[in-house]
Protein backbone atom coordinates (compact mmCIF):
# COMPACT_ATOMS: atom_id res chain seq x y z
CA UNK A 1 0.00 0.00 0.00
CA UNK A 2 1.62 3.27 -0.95
CA UNK A 3 0.71 6.85 -0.31
CA UNK A 4 -0.36 8.51 -3.55
CA UNK A 5 -1.57 11.93 -2.51
CA UNK A 6 -1.49 14.27 0.44
CA UNK A 7 -3.11 17.63 1.07
CA UNK A 8 -3.14 19.92 4.11
CA UNK A 9 -6.83 20.79 4.53
CA UNK A 10 -6.58 22.86 7.74
CA UNK A 11 -3.56 24.53 9.26
CA UNK A 12 -3.39 25.19 12.99
CA UNK A 13 -0.97 26.33 15.65
CA UNK A 14 -0.36 22.99 17.37
CA UNK A 15 -1.57 20.56 14.70
CA UNK A 16 -2.74 20.48 11.10
CA UNK A 17 -5.36 18.35 9.40
CA UNK A 18 -4.13 16.43 6.36
CA UNK A 19 -6.07 14.39 3.84
CA UNK A 20 -4.11 11.40 2.57
CA UNK A 21 -4.95 8.82 -0.08
CA UNK A 22 -3.27 5.47 0.58
CA UNK A 23 -4.26 3.42 -2.44
CA UNK A 24 -8.07 3.31 -2.29
CA UNK A 25 -8.16 4.39 1.34
CA UNK A 26 -8.74 8.05 2.14
CA UNK A 27 -7.84 9.26 5.64
CA UNK A 28 -8.33 12.61 7.35
CA UNK A 29 -5.60 12.84 9.97
CA UNK A 30 -4.64 15.31 12.67
CA UNK A 31 -0.89 15.76 12.34
CA UNK A 32 1.19 16.97 15.28
CA UNK A 33 4.98 17.49 15.45
CA UNK A 34 5.24 14.92 18.25
CA UNK A 35 5.39 15.11 22.03
CA UNK A 36 7.43 13.98 24.99
CA UNK A 37 6.49 12.85 28.50
CA UNK A 38 8.76 12.13 31.43
CA UNK A 39 8.55 9.54 34.22
CA UNK A 40 10.62 11.74 36.53
CA UNK A 41 11.82 10.33 39.85
CA UNK A 42 13.16 12.75 42.45
CA UNK A 43 15.96 11.96 44.91
CA UNK A 44 13.42 10.84 47.51
CA UNK A 45 12.13 8.23 45.06
CA UNK A 46 8.89 10.07 44.35
CA UNK A 47 7.25 10.31 40.92
CA UNK A 48 6.86 13.97 39.91
CA UNK A 49 3.55 14.81 38.22
CA UNK A 50 1.74 17.99 37.24
CA UNK A 51 -1.90 18.92 37.59
CA UNK A 52 -3.50 21.42 35.23
CA UNK A 53 -6.85 22.31 33.75
CA UNK A 54 -7.27 20.81 30.29
CA UNK A 55 -9.83 22.61 28.15
CA UNK A 56 -10.02 19.65 25.76
CA UNK A 57 -11.38 17.37 28.48
CA UNK A 58 -13.02 20.14 30.55
CA UNK A 59 -11.33 19.12 33.81
CA UNK A 60 -8.03 19.12 35.67
CA UNK A 61 -5.80 16.15 35.02
CA UNK A 62 -2.85 14.69 36.87
CA UNK A 63 -0.19 14.01 34.22
CA UNK A 64 3.43 13.24 33.58
CA UNK A 65 5.39 16.41 32.79
CA UNK A 66 5.02 16.68 29.02
CA UNK A 67 4.97 18.93 26.03
CA UNK A 68 5.31 19.29 22.29
CA UNK A 69 8.54 19.18 20.32
CA UNK A 70 9.76 22.49 19.02
CA UNK A 71 10.51 22.38 15.29
CA UNK A 72 13.68 20.39 14.66
CA UNK A 73 14.13 19.59 18.35
CA UNK A 74 15.07 16.02 19.36
CA UNK A 75 12.71 14.19 21.73
CA UNK A 76 15.39 13.99 24.45
CA UNK A 77 16.18 17.72 24.23
CA UNK A 78 12.46 18.53 24.36
CA UNK A 79 11.97 16.23 27.35
CA UNK A 80 14.82 17.85 29.30
CA UNK A 81 13.49 21.32 28.43
CA UNK A 82 9.88 20.52 29.36
CA UNK A 83 10.82 18.85 32.63
CA UNK A 84 12.91 21.82 33.71
CA UNK A 85 10.27 24.37 32.63
CA UNK A 86 7.43 22.60 34.40
CA UNK A 87 9.17 21.32 37.56
CA UNK A 88 12.69 22.82 37.75
CA UNK A 89 14.19 19.32 37.76
CA UNK A 90 17.29 18.91 35.58
CA UNK A 91 20.46 16.89 35.12
CA UNK A 92 20.17 13.26 36.16
CA UNK A 93 20.28 10.10 34.09
CA UNK A 94 17.84 9.47 31.29
CA UNK A 95 16.63 6.56 29.23
CA UNK A 96 13.91 6.12 26.65
CA UNK A 97 11.04 3.91 27.84
CA UNK A 98 9.10 3.80 24.56
CA UNK A 99 7.21 5.69 21.91
CA UNK A 100 3.43 5.46 21.97
CA UNK A 101 0.66 6.51 19.60
CA UNK A 102 -2.26 8.16 21.46
CA UNK A 103 -5.03 7.59 18.93
CA UNK A 104 -3.72 5.83 15.81
CA UNK A 105 -7.02 5.82 13.92
CA UNK A 106 -6.71 9.49 13.02
CA UNK A 107 -3.90 11.15 15.01
CA UNK A 108 -0.25 11.31 13.92
CA UNK A 109 1.49 12.27 17.15
CA UNK A 110 4.38 10.09 18.29
CA UNK A 111 4.81 10.53 22.05
CA UNK A 112 8.27 9.63 23.38
CA UNK A 113 8.24 8.60 27.05
CA UNK A 114 11.48 8.87 29.02
CA UNK A 115 12.53 7.72 32.48
CA UNK A 116 14.64 10.33 34.30
CA UNK A 117 16.35 9.59 37.62
CA UNK A 118 18.92 11.22 39.95
CA UNK A 119 17.47 14.62 39.06
CA UNK A 120 18.66 17.89 40.59
CA UNK A 121 16.17 20.36 42.03
CA UNK A 122 15.89 23.86 40.50
CA UNK A 123 13.56 26.70 39.57
CA UNK A 124 10.59 25.99 37.33
CA UNK A 125 9.64 28.31 34.50
CA UNK A 126 6.23 27.34 33.08
CA UNK A 127 4.77 28.87 29.92
CA UNK A 128 2.58 31.91 30.52
CA UNK A 129 -0.61 30.04 29.65
CA UNK A 130 0.20 27.09 31.93
CA UNK A 131 -1.06 27.05 35.49
CA UNK A 132 0.65 24.02 36.83
CA UNK A 133 0.60 22.41 40.22
CA UNK A 134 3.49 20.02 40.84
CA UNK A 135 2.53 16.83 42.73
CA UNK A 136 5.04 14.28 44.06
CA UNK A 137 3.96 10.74 44.89
CA UNK A 138 5.79 7.88 46.56
CA UNK A 139 5.26 4.49 44.85
CA UNK A 140 2.63 3.63 47.51
CA UNK A 141 0.84 6.95 46.94
CA UNK A 142 0.98 6.37 43.19
CA UNK A 143 -0.65 2.95 43.65
CA UNK A 144 -3.44 4.67 45.57
CA UNK A 145 -3.87 7.37 42.88
CA UNK A 146 -3.88 4.97 39.91
CA UNK A 147 -7.65 4.63 39.89
CA UNK A 148 -8.05 8.36 39.28
CA UNK A 149 -5.55 8.71 36.42
CA UNK A 150 -7.23 9.42 33.10
CA UNK A 151 -4.44 10.63 30.85
CA UNK A 152 -3.19 7.88 28.53
CA UNK A 153 0.55 8.68 28.51
CA UNK A 154 0.48 9.07 32.30
CA UNK A 155 -1.20 5.70 32.81
CA UNK A 156 1.29 4.04 30.46
CA UNK A 157 4.27 5.68 32.17
CA UNK A 158 2.99 5.03 35.69
CA UNK A 159 2.05 1.41 35.00
CA UNK A 160 5.38 0.69 33.29
CA UNK A 161 7.21 2.34 36.18
CA UNK A 162 5.33 0.35 38.82
CA UNK A 163 5.97 -2.80 36.82
CA UNK A 164 9.57 -2.43 35.70
CA UNK A 165 10.99 0.89 36.72
CA UNK A 166 11.78 0.36 40.34
CA UNK B 1 -12.68 29.69 34.19
CA UNK B 2 -15.67 29.55 31.90
CA UNK B 3 -16.04 28.93 28.21
CA UNK B 4 -17.08 32.12 26.48
CA UNK B 5 -16.97 31.31 22.80
CA UNK B 6 -16.80 28.33 20.50
CA UNK B 7 -16.48 28.01 16.74
CA UNK B 8 -16.13 24.98 14.46
CA UNK B 9 -13.21 25.91 12.19
CA UNK B 10 -12.95 22.65 10.21
CA UNK B 11 -15.51 19.92 9.79
CA UNK B 12 -14.42 16.36 9.05
CA UNK B 13 -15.83 12.86 8.79
CA UNK B 14 -14.39 11.41 12.00
CA UNK B 15 -13.49 14.58 13.91
CA UNK B 16 -13.91 18.35 13.72
CA UNK B 17 -11.59 21.15 14.72
CA UNK B 18 -13.08 23.69 17.14
CA UNK B 19 -11.66 26.97 18.38
CA UNK B 20 -12.66 27.71 21.97
CA UNK B 21 -12.00 30.74 24.16
CA UNK B 22 -11.86 29.86 27.86
CA UNK B 23 -11.42 33.23 29.52
CA UNK B 24 -8.15 34.56 28.09
CA UNK B 25 -7.06 31.15 26.86
CA UNK B 26 -7.67 30.23 23.24
CA UNK B 27 -7.51 26.56 22.29
CA UNK B 28 -7.70 24.81 18.94
CA UNK B 29 -9.05 21.34 19.65
CA UNK B 30 -9.72 18.21 17.61
CA UNK B 31 -13.15 17.03 18.70
CA UNK B 32 -14.19 13.39 18.26
CA UNK B 33 -17.47 11.71 19.26
CA UNK B 34 -15.59 9.33 21.57
CA UNK B 35 -14.31 5.78 21.22
CA UNK B 36 -14.40 2.41 22.89
CA UNK B 37 -11.81 -0.32 23.36
CA UNK B 38 -12.26 -3.80 24.76
CA UNK B 39 -9.99 -6.00 26.88
CA UNK B 40 -11.64 -9.16 25.56
CA UNK B 41 -10.79 -12.51 27.13
CA UNK B 42 -11.80 -15.66 25.29
CA UNK B 43 -12.85 -18.91 26.96
CA UNK B 44 -9.29 -20.20 26.87
CA UNK B 45 -8.17 -17.17 28.89
CA UNK B 46 -6.47 -15.47 25.96
CA UNK B 47 -6.55 -11.71 25.30
CA UNK B 48 -8.01 -11.05 21.84
CA UNK B 49 -6.25 -8.32 19.86
CA UNK B 50 -6.35 -7.08 16.28
CA UNK B 51 -3.54 -6.09 13.96
CA UNK B 52 -4.09 -3.59 11.18
CA UNK B 53 -2.22 -1.04 9.13
CA UNK B 54 -2.68 2.46 10.54
CA UNK B 55 -2.08 5.20 7.99
CA UNK B 56 -1.72 7.80 10.76
CA UNK B 57 1.36 6.08 12.16
CA UNK B 58 2.48 4.51 8.87
CA UNK B 59 2.75 0.99 10.27
CA UNK B 60 0.76 -2.01 11.47
CA UNK B 61 -0.23 -1.93 15.12
CA UNK B 62 -1.41 -4.61 17.51
CA UNK B 63 -4.41 -3.12 19.33
CA UNK B 64 -7.40 -3.85 21.50
CA UNK B 65 -10.56 -4.23 19.41
CA UNK B 66 -11.83 -0.66 19.24
CA UNK B 67 -13.85 1.87 17.31
CA UNK B 68 -15.74 5.13 17.34
CA UNK B 69 -19.19 5.69 18.84
CA UNK B 70 -21.99 6.06 16.34
CA UNK B 71 -24.03 9.20 16.97
CA UNK B 72 -26.16 8.78 20.08
CA UNK B 73 -24.78 5.30 20.79
CA UNK B 74 -23.80 4.41 24.36
CA UNK B 75 -20.19 3.34 24.98
CA UNK B 76 -21.26 -0.16 26.07
CA UNK B 77 -23.44 -0.67 22.98
CA UNK B 78 -20.61 0.56 20.75
CA UNK B 79 -18.13 -1.74 22.49
CA UNK B 80 -20.35 -4.80 22.03
CA UNK B 81 -20.92 -3.87 18.37
CA UNK B 82 -17.23 -3.25 17.61
CA UNK B 83 -16.08 -6.43 19.33
CA UNK B 84 -18.54 -8.54 17.39
CA UNK B 85 -17.75 -6.82 14.06
CA UNK B 86 -13.99 -7.16 14.47
CA UNK B 87 -13.71 -10.59 16.14
CA UNK B 88 -17.12 -12.28 16.15
CA UNK B 89 -17.04 -12.47 19.96
CA UNK B 90 -20.32 -11.62 21.66
CA UNK B 91 -22.36 -12.18 24.80
CA UNK B 92 -20.33 -12.64 27.96
CA UNK B 93 -20.04 -10.44 31.02
CA UNK B 94 -18.86 -6.88 30.78
CA UNK B 95 -17.55 -4.21 33.09
CA UNK B 96 -16.13 -0.74 32.55
CA UNK B 97 -12.43 -0.49 33.39
CA UNK B 98 -12.06 3.26 32.93
CA UNK B 99 -12.26 6.22 30.59
CA UNK B 100 -8.99 7.64 29.29
CA UNK B 101 -8.02 10.77 27.36
CA UNK B 102 -5.50 10.00 24.61
CA UNK B 103 -3.95 13.45 24.18
CA UNK B 104 -5.61 16.00 26.48
CA UNK B 105 -3.61 19.03 25.31
CA UNK B 106 -5.63 19.32 22.11
CA UNK B 107 -7.81 16.22 21.59
CA UNK B 108 -11.35 15.80 22.93
CA UNK B 109 -11.90 12.06 22.56
CA UNK B 110 -13.01 10.14 25.65
CA UNK B 111 -12.06 6.48 25.20
CA UNK B 112 -14.07 4.03 27.31
CA UNK B 113 -12.20 0.80 28.03
CA UNK B 114 -14.23 -2.30 28.95
CA UNK B 115 -13.29 -5.74 30.22
CA UNK B 116 -15.34 -8.50 28.55
CA UNK B 117 -15.16 -12.13 29.73
CA UNK B 118 -17.00 -15.42 29.11
CA UNK B 119 -17.45 -14.42 25.48
CA UNK B 120 -19.09 -16.62 22.86
CA UNK B 121 -17.41 -17.25 19.52
CA UNK B 122 -19.10 -16.12 16.31
CA UNK B 123 -18.62 -14.69 12.84
CA UNK B 124 -16.75 -11.41 12.44
CA UNK B 125 -17.98 -8.72 10.09
CA UNK B 126 -15.34 -6.00 9.73
CA UNK B 127 -15.95 -2.70 7.93
CA UNK B 128 -15.05 -2.73 4.25
CA UNK B 129 -12.03 -0.48 4.76
CA UNK B 130 -10.66 -2.57 7.63
CA UNK B 131 -8.16 -5.34 6.96
CA UNK B 132 -7.91 -6.93 10.35
CA UNK B 133 -5.90 -9.84 11.60
CA UNK B 134 -7.16 -11.27 14.90
CA UNK B 135 -4.40 -12.29 17.33
CA UNK B 136 -4.98 -14.19 20.59
CA UNK B 137 -2.39 -14.15 23.37
CA UNK B 138 -2.15 -16.07 26.63
CA UNK B 139 -1.09 -13.93 29.61
CA UNK B 140 2.48 -15.25 29.21
CA UNK B 141 2.48 -14.41 25.50
CA UNK B 142 1.11 -10.95 26.29
CA UNK B 143 3.97 -10.37 28.75
CA UNK B 144 6.38 -11.26 25.96
CA UNK B 145 4.66 -8.92 23.47
CA UNK B 146 4.40 -5.93 25.84
CA UNK B 147 7.67 -4.43 24.66
CA UNK B 148 6.33 -4.13 21.13
CA UNK B 149 2.98 -2.52 21.95
CA UNK B 150 2.79 1.10 20.81
CA UNK B 151 -0.91 1.97 20.95
CA UNK B 152 -1.79 3.92 24.09
CA UNK B 153 -5.23 2.40 24.84
CA UNK B 154 -3.83 -1.09 24.25
CA UNK B 155 -0.92 -0.54 26.64
CA UNK B 156 -3.30 0.85 29.27
CA UNK B 157 -5.74 -2.04 28.86
CA UNK B 158 -3.03 -4.71 28.75
CA UNK B 159 -1.10 -3.33 31.73
CA UNK B 160 -4.28 -2.96 33.81
CA UNK B 161 -5.31 -6.49 32.85
CA UNK B 162 -1.93 -7.99 33.78
CA UNK B 163 -2.04 -6.04 37.03
CA UNK B 164 -5.62 -6.46 38.17
CA UNK B 165 -7.69 -8.28 35.63
CA UNK B 166 -6.70 -11.86 36.22
Would you write up a description of this structure?
The structure is a homodimer of 166-residue chains. Chain A is an alpha+beta fold and 166 residues long. In chain A, 20% of the residues lie in helices and 42% in strands. Chain A is built from three helices and eleven strands, in the order βββββββαββββαα. Chain A has helices spanning 75-87, 139-145, 152-165, and strands at 3-11, 15-22, 25-32, 35-41, 47-54, 59-63, 66-68, 93-100, 107-108, 111-117, 133-137. In chain A, strands 4, 5, 6, 7, 8, 10 and 11 form a seven-stranded mixed β-sheet that branches. Chain A starts with a strand and ends with a helix. The interface between A and B is large, with 53 and 53 residues.
Supply Rg of chain A. 17 Å
- Give me the strand/helix succession of chain A: EEEEEEEHEEEEHH
Kindly state the number of beta strands of chain A.
11
Shape of chain A: elongated
Largest sheet of chain A: 7 strands, mixed
Low-confidence stretches of chain A: none
SS-derived structural category of chain A:
alpha+beta
Strand content of chain A: 35-45%
Tally the helices of chain A.
3
Largest interface: A-B, 53 and 53 residues
